[in-house]
Amino acid sequence: HQVITNLLHPSTNSRDVRQPSTMADENYHDDEGYDHDEYDADEGLIDNAYVADHGEVVTDVTIILTDEEEKLIEGEKQRRFFFGMVCCFLIVVAIIVPVAITQSGGSSGSTTPPPTDAPTEQPSTAPSGAPTTDELSDTIECLQSITSFDTFQDRQGGQFKAVDWIVNEDAYAATEGMTCEEQRFIIRYAMATTFFAMGGEQWAACGISDPDCDFGNEDTGWLSSSSVCDWYRVRCDNDGEVVALNFGSLLPQRRSLVPLGGDFPTEFGTLTMLQQLQFKDFGVTSIPSFFTQFSNLEELNLENNQVRGSFFPFSGEAFPSLRTLVLTNNFLTGPIPTVHGTLSTIREYRAGQNGLTGQVPEELANMSLVAHFDLGDNDLEGNVTDALFDLLELRILSLHTNDLIGSIPAKVGNLVFLERIFLNSTLYGGEIPNELYTLPKLQEIKLRSARFTGSIDPSIQNLTSLQVFDISQNSGIGGTIPDVFGDIPFLEELRLDQTELTGELSASVCEATGDDFGEIEILVVDCFIETPRGFPDCGDCFPREGCEC
Questions:
Q1: Could you report the per-residue pLDDT of 99-135, keeping only the tens digit for each?
Q2: Which residues are within 8 A (CB) of 16 and not within 5 positions of it... i.e. 6 or more apart?
Q3: Which of 155, 322, 424, 475 could be joined to 448 by an S-S link, Cβ 3.0–4.6 Å?
Q4: How is residue 457 annotated by DSSP?
Q5: CA 56/CA 44 separation, integer angstroms
Q6: What is the CB neighbour count within 10 angstroms for residue 478?
Q7: C-alpha span between 135 and 297 (Å, rounded)
Q8: Could you write out the DSSP letters of every residue in 257-304?
Q9: Which residues contact 441 (CB under 8 A, 6 or more apart)?
Q10: Residue 228 and residue 258: Cα distance in Å, rounded?
Q11: What is the DSSP code (8-state) at residue 214?
Q12: Distance of CA 271 to the CA centre of its chain
């Protein structure tokens, strides 16, 4: 520093600048007295420097230092660099240490969780609505054996909504200290998933918006802070397993408040102790394959829904206790599975008003306990085995509105429990056996629009329970009408039109007309049958060519 100062600011103790000389000198001086000569190399060099009288450097100073001087300057630079690094280190320490102390103090009351054996999850590609909280994530991880992780990524899906409700809103699960490994937790999760997946959020009663379930008697609403066994229309066994979901007997105004629809979620299959499932008059769209897990199922009623596709292959092996199978008025298509014939415990087999095709399998005659057999109003065709009339427990036989071919055998007289027989709008034909008129419980005979022939035997009066007798639109039925219908005490509907019957109805028939039970409300004949004079309102008249009513 001193060397540089002496060079830039010369004093009396420093080397003097040469005195001005005359223009005759070898080196000239300008008018201001500045020397343009150079110092010798060993004395130091000021090249092209103009040093004023006051020691100011005007421009372009080049300084030549000795080795000792350069070492002094370099040492000074290193000391300053080291000092700067020390200062930066101290600043960083001053920032980090207080932060670390604060975090350590905030977590002093918690314990470090034990290490887990679970693999580290890969970065998720889930949408922004994916699970974020630790408890929610842990519960989802725990339920992987029931619901896939990908399924949980749909925040609008019933599965995510169900687990989110249990973790963040369900007071009952928290109070009971449920863990996700427990069966009661799994049942609760399955029920909540079913609620969300099948339209429960639209419920106007006995749902989230009505936890008290005002018309549920002692039941509480679904997703209320109580056991699932107390939820509306849910019943459990002594172990807390759900055994019944009964929505089959609701009044229409109540059913409209609790709509159900769509597909059963796979989680519903965990309710393996289910015995009764009645979802009548809703919007269920399918019967999933996991229904085979319901080996305890005794009753399945999905009447008046939107079930589509092929007829589920119910078998006696998978459903050894099934007594009631009702799928009336849906959208089933294709043939009837022959395996249905193995349902040895079935009592009610109803699949009418669908789009089933093919023949009626002979194997169905093995349902020895069936009492209600209904395949009416389908697209079935072909011959029907007479073995159906060996089903001695039959109370209702309905094959109407199909292109089925067959006849009523004499062994129909063995069906002593038969109450209703519907063979109308089929290709059934032949004579009506008199044995049919011996059945004490028979209430309805509907043979309209078929191919029956012969006449009406007077023994029909033995059917003291008969309420409906319809043989209209059978051109092969003729003869004289027997004068016995007035003696059948509970007859309410009599249709004899568009046949070849002749004769006269007695006055007792018209005298029995009216709106009260046991009085004839519907009487339809054509003009080959004369109605008594004086009773102009007795029945409708179907005139034929050359005949006036």
A1: 555 555 444 444 444 444 444 444 443 333 444 478 9
A2: 10
A3: 424
A4: -
A5: 18
A6: 16
A7: 35
A8: TS--EEPPPGGGGG-TT--EEE-TTSEE----GGGGG-TT--EEE--S
A9: 395, 416, 417, 418, 419, 465
A10: 17
A11: T
A12: 15
Give the CA count within 13 Å in the CB-facing half-sphere of 31. 0
DSSP state of 337: P
How would DSSP label each residue in 412-449?
Answer: GGG-TT--EEE--SSS-EEE--GGGGG-TT--EEE--S
Q: Give the β-pairing of 348-350 and 372-374.
A: parallel
Q: How many CA atoms lie within 13 A of 349 on its CB side?
A: 32
Q: What contacts 406, CB < 8 A, 6 or more positions away?
A: 383, 384, 386, 399, 426, 427, 428
Could you give the CA distance from residue 229 to residue 234 in angstroms, rounded to a whole number? 6
How many CB atoms are closer than 10 A to CB 294?
21
Rounded to an integer, what is the distance from CA 401 to the centroid of its chain?
A: 34
Q: Which two tokens stand for residue 300?
A: 């399945």
Residue 541 predicted with pLDDT over 70: no
* 8 Å CB contact between 18 and 35: yes
One-character DSSP codes across 95-162: HHHHHHHHHHHHTTTS-PPPP--SPPPPPP---TTS--SHHHHHHHHHTTTTS-HHHHT-TTSHHHHH
- pLDDT exceeding 90 applies to what percent of the chain? 58
